[in-house]
Amino acid sequence: MTIRRRIAFWAGCALAVLLAACSTPATRVVLLPQADGRPSAVVVRTKGGEQTLDKPYQRATAAAGATGAPAVDAADPLQVRRDNATLFDLMPPGPQRYTVYFDAGGTVLTEASQREVQEMLAAAAARPGADIVVTGHTDTVGSGPQNDQLSRRRAEELRQLLIQRGFPAQRIEAAGRGERELAVPTADEVDEPRNRRVTIEVR
Predict the structure, then answer these.
(1) Which of 37, 72, 145, 197 is the most buried (most CB within 10 A)?
(2) Residues 78 and 100 grouped into a single domain
(3) Do the bridges between strand 26-32 and strand 16-21 make them parallel or antiparallel, or are there none, so unpaired?
């Protein structure tokens, strides 16, 4: 069988993998690190078995016609980038994340967060094909159902602002998490400004 030289990128929610053929008739898979440092993994399967890569720059090599599982070693990060510089240049930019904060009990942004929203809108405008995820949160003041509704309202207001600026509604997802994902853990009925927030991810 003829093994052609081929290089391709595969990206998922949790991981990024570089597939590359080497000069010998074999295929290599190198696990790339996530930009935000989150762990990732990929299973490499051949007819002879499988290997799991779960550390950045682990490499699995499957030789043409081999009967065993892929061989695993560590790739040199600098060498991977040198050998595939063009492909790294073509990779889409990583997600951009913003957090804006609200006055107590409502959907009015703090003054500093109003400026942050303008920066977020400019960043989103520079990526017109991007998907945007808006997630609302509250502090622990009030009941759980009330905070669920409030967090959803906060997220929806940001979503509507994006739509008014021309972003396609179908590309903007809004959700409310109430007080379930506190940025600063507190007891119940604690007025904590850092928990009254909306996170926006432009990806």
Answers:
(1) 197
(2) no
(3) antiparallel
CA distances from 32 to 42, 136, 149, 176 (A): 10, 31, 39, 32
Structure tokens at 139: 């502090």
Domain boundary among the residues 64, 90, 116 is at 90
- Measured from the Cβ of residue 2, the count of other Cβ atoms closer than 10 Å reads 5
Parallel/antiparallel/unpaired status of strands 172-176 and 132-136: parallel
Domain boundary (68, 90, 112) is at: 90
- Is residue 1 in a domain? no
Residues 137, 179 contacting (CB under 8 angstroms) = yes
pLDDT (tens digit, 9 = 90+) per residue, 69-117? 899 999 999 999 998 899 888 877 778 899 999 999 899 999 889 888 8
In a domain, 55, yes or no: yes
Complete edge-to-edge strand list for the sheet that includes strand 132-136: 96-101, 197-202, 132-136, 172-176
Q: Rounded CA gap, 100 and 115, in Å? A: 9
Judgement on whether residues 102 and 197 belong to the same structural domain of the protein: yes
Query: How many whole angstroms separate alpha carbon 83 and alpha carbon 86?
Result: 9
- The domain in which residue 41 lies consists of 7-90
pTM above 0.70, yes or no: no
> Phi then psi for 28, rounded to 5 degrees?
-120, 145
CB 141 within 8 A of CB 182: no
CA distances to 90, 116, 127, 168 from 123, rounded to whole Å, are 19, 11, 7, 15
